[in-house]
Amino acid sequence: MKLTHLFLTGIVVSGAMLSGFAVADVVTENPVTERGVVKVTWQDPKSFRDIKAVGGIQSRYETRTFEALTKSLDKEASKILKPEQKLELIVTDLDLAGDVRPTFGATMNDIRLITDIYPPRITFSYSVLEGDKVVVVGNEKLTDMGFMHTTGRMNDRPLRYESKLLADWMKKTLEPKI
User: Fold this and answer.
1) Is the pTM for the entire model greater than 0.90?
2) C-alpha 144: how far from its chain's center?
3) How many CB atoms lie within 10 A of CB 88?
4) What is the CB neighbour count within 10 angstroms for residue 44?
5) 150 pLDDT exceeds 80?
């Protein structure tokens, strides 16, 4: 009797765990992140060049990455946009700085190797809206080949190279058009 009860408990617990994993890794087709004056649609992230997680669940890593980049964009956009304006992006490709490499059992996770030959890249279309009126519209394909030399060594924020790439674009390209 005890063995049967223990067996049934094990089935229930393992079923609950499996359903928890299935729910935890649900992927949104085209996720949208929004913060302050910025709205970003991440179009078909499965086709992005490199947004690989080095550890953990891929969908959670993507969500954290998208939210962090949106937060960074909002911080910079808030400085240059007028109070009634909003920046909307549709990202069609993202290639994070570095390349994911296996550790062949040395650790549980892979590592992201950051070197000059793997620069950050992002492709997107954008529009600046003022109410329902379109103020600026365009397409960009950004790459920072000198990313290792333009970001300070003491900067240890996640996605610092991608954030700087987007901040530089806003200052050099978007701000003069507004």
Assistant:
1) no
2) 17
3) 19
4) 11
5) no
